[in-house]
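User: Structure with flavin mononucleotide, tokens only please.
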Amino acid sequence: MPPMVREHGDDDGCVTDDVVAYYRRRAAAGTGLIIVEATAVEPAGRTWPGGLCAYTPAHLPGLRALAGAIHAEGAAALLQLVHGGPKATPRVSGRETVAASAVQPSGSRAMPRALTVEDVRRTQLHFAGAAELAMEAGFDGVEVHGAHGYLLDAFLSRKYNVRDDEYGGSMENRVRVLTETCRSVREWAGAGALLACRFSLFNKLHEGFSPADLATLVRGLEAGGVDLLHVSTLAVFGEYFDTGRSLGQLVKELTDLPTIVAGGLREPADAERAVSQGHGDMAAVGTAMMRDADWSRRAAGLLHEEKGDQPAG
Ligand SMILES: Cc1cc2nc3c(=O)[nH]c(=O)nc-3n(C[C@H](O)[C@H](O)[C@H](O)COP(=O)(O)O)c2cc1C
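Assistant:
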């Protein structure tokens, strides 16, 4: 189950009983790995009213209850960590928005302030601190949110990152913030933590993001010490770069790291095909699982029925 914000936390970003019950049900259906929704690593990174947060001791008890409930039903649990960056919401965060560069974001969002190098380092420590809190709460690890236009993804973008320091310019430089953030998270979360990083290409394709850029990104994540890549797409089976291959297949050619693919997988047979055809090592099912808490149970029944054996409980 990929991360999906629901806005059911309380005003301070704490986990509520409703949040625990929602994830517990999906774990109880037999979901293997649940990546809990984007959780802010510091106040300025808050984006959604009712979005979860992980930066003060007050957030710990709720996160602990959440990890405990998911584990009690037999699933593994990661917490996705986010800084909203240019997509953060001042009304929720009570702070000015910050970004890689002061470039006007889409929509009616406020012009962000460009982070200084010192701010970048501080932000990386916020990710690391949130990861430490997640581990203390009992999660199996964390996922760094490097997708969908939020702060770390904005650094990867040619349009939204026009810096001329070590974090801008070449693709190597634009990936640096993600590599360093993952390294800091690894350091604070510990060697035993499962560390995933999610990325997407979406708008970057219109900015000329190339197969070579993809290779640099993947190398940067390997250098960051991640265990698991999470490829977010609009359509898992869609072709990229006129290669006849999906993004997941291209990523798998670039690395031996296990990969998760997400995007448009609705039916159990779609998820099965995503894995059997090598688009990813794991298939993430979002909207369908949000709508149907028992999706995983249904999938196990259907897929095992096809193979003529018993569902594995
Ligand atoms: C309501 C909603 C909330 C989402 N929240 C997040 C999020 O917190 N973090 C994230 O990386 N992606 C988020 N996504 C994207 C999903 O994880 C997933 O990649 C996307 O929905 C495509 O997969 P699907 O077609 O199976 O739903 C969200 C999607 C939806 C519909």
